[in-house]
Amino acid sequence: MDRPRDEKARYPGAAGPGYLLSNICSIFKNMNQDAAERLAARYARRAEPISLTPEELDFEHNPVTTSVPGVPVWAWIRFPGAAERVKGEACSWSSRAVQVLWEDAGLRRATWVWASAVTRRTNNSRKETLGDRTAREAG
Fold it and tell me: Is the pLDDT of residue 17 over 60?
């Protein structure tokens, strides 16, 4: 099947790839034009977060611990073509992975990431991964 080469055919009712950017920019009328373009590019670049797969999580061999309330953490969340360090809570974890609850533009998300991508949020400068802490508590 041939893909349309004409931008108007690919985006019916739109003027082309700039259509999305101009729509987003019009939302931020009170914002500086450059800042609005940077924000639009950031969100266009990173679609949905990428969570670990069931095969990577392997719950059969890596039992999960759950904590209510969650443990305050910093976590690296992966997106297609980008990664972002977010403020969140670790609510469940295994020896290899952590489920992080975090907010994205007012939307609450839950994403499984590798334990090494998570650092506990503390007031001191010492950095400790959640995997290090759970290994120390188990030992």
Answer: no
